[in-house]
Write a structure and sequence with these properties.
By secondary structure, the chain is an alpha/beta fold. The protein folds into 2 domains: 129 residues, Rossmann fold (3-Layer(aba) Sandwich); 125 residues, NAD(P)-binding Rossmann-like Domain (Rossmann fold, 3-Layer(aba) Sandwich), CATH 3.40.50.720. Helix 1 crosses helix 10, helix 5 packs across helix 6 and helix 9 crosses helix 10. The longest helix has 17 residues. The mean pLDDT is 95.
């Protein structure tokens, strides 16, 4: 068939791993970018159980993958497995992108923080509240503290919030947070699945804030946090905007090419997830 895409022995491979990973729109985003640039690449989503993470990473290197993106719950464990880390991934102790290098060596990178900053644009200040204490939260805290904001961390596990805050120069507070500064970042999976209207903090704290939700739903519905933020007149940055920011950085790392941002934005918005 004319125009049919051919995948063969010379096709370069990239992908995303997580547990679960069925909701991911990264394949649609990256494959649309490859097609737009006429690149012989393919990007796939692969569910990987936590107990088999290192097998998956080493196996992907052995199979000739150029790189992998990594999502919940593997980011911190991936950082520990990689043979080397970028300075940003080392500081965050989190890797959401892995580059396969000569000899099967794994280099961990994080695009979470910079991708989030690119999606937010101008940062309000002087404070930020980060919800969560996992890999995405660590990357968010690291980049926001590096940008000069006073960061507060709120997580269900108070000890995890305190440890993260201690390591990255932030302050821990209760869950749910009882107050919020100018910027609120949700780095938990709350709202990604189940009831779309679930909130990680009281909606009354959203008024006049900038609200960034790193989570997004496979069914295309807004998360409860983003919907509530829009209702409250807050500037809302949803997880798909952040996904494109992260994905553009990963695209450059994997391919060495400039990503077609508008194509990627359209792909994540129009993707159909089974």
């Amino acid at each position: 068939m004319a125009g049919e895409r051919r995948i063969g022995g010379g096709t370069r491979l990239a992908g995303v791993i997580g547990w679960p990973v069925e909701h991911s729109r990264s394949p649609q985003m990256h494959n649309a970018a490859y097609a737009a640039l006429g690149m012989d690449w393919v990007y796939v989503a692969m569910p990987v159980e936590p107990a088999r993470l290192e097998q998956a990473l080493r196996g992907a290197a052995a199979l000739g993958f150029a790189g992998l993106n990594v999502t919940i719950p593997h980011k911190q464990a991936t950082a520990a497995i990689c043979d080397e880390l970028s300075p940003e991934a080392r500081r965050a102790d989190s890797a959401n992108t892995v580059l396969m290098q000569d000899g099967g060596r794994l280099r961990g990178e994080t695009t979470d923080g910079q991708g989030m900053l690119d999606a937010i644009g101008d940062l309000p200040g002087p404070g930020a509240l980060v919800l969560g204490a996992g890999g995405a939260a660590r990357a968010a805290v690291a980049v926001l503290a590096g940008a000069g904001l006073a960061v507060t961390v709120s997580a269900r596990r108070r000890e995890a919030a305190e440890q993260l805050a201690r390591e990255l120069g932030a302050t821990a507070t209760d869950w749910p947070a009882g107050a919020a500064p100018e910027l609120i970042v949700n780095a938990t999976p709350l709202g990604q699945a189940g009831e779309a209207d679930r909130l990680p903090l009281d909606a009354g704290l959203l008024d006049g804030r900038v609200v960034c939700d790193l989570a997004y739903r496979g069914d295309g519905a807004e998360t409860g946090l983003i919907a509530a933020a829009r209702e409250r007149g807050a500037r809302a940055v949803d997880g798909l905007e952040v996904l494109v920011g992260q994905g553009a950085l990963a695209f450059r790392l994997f391919t060495g090419e400039e990503p077609p941002i508008e194509i990627m934005q359209a792909a994540v918005r129009n993707a159909t997830i089974a």
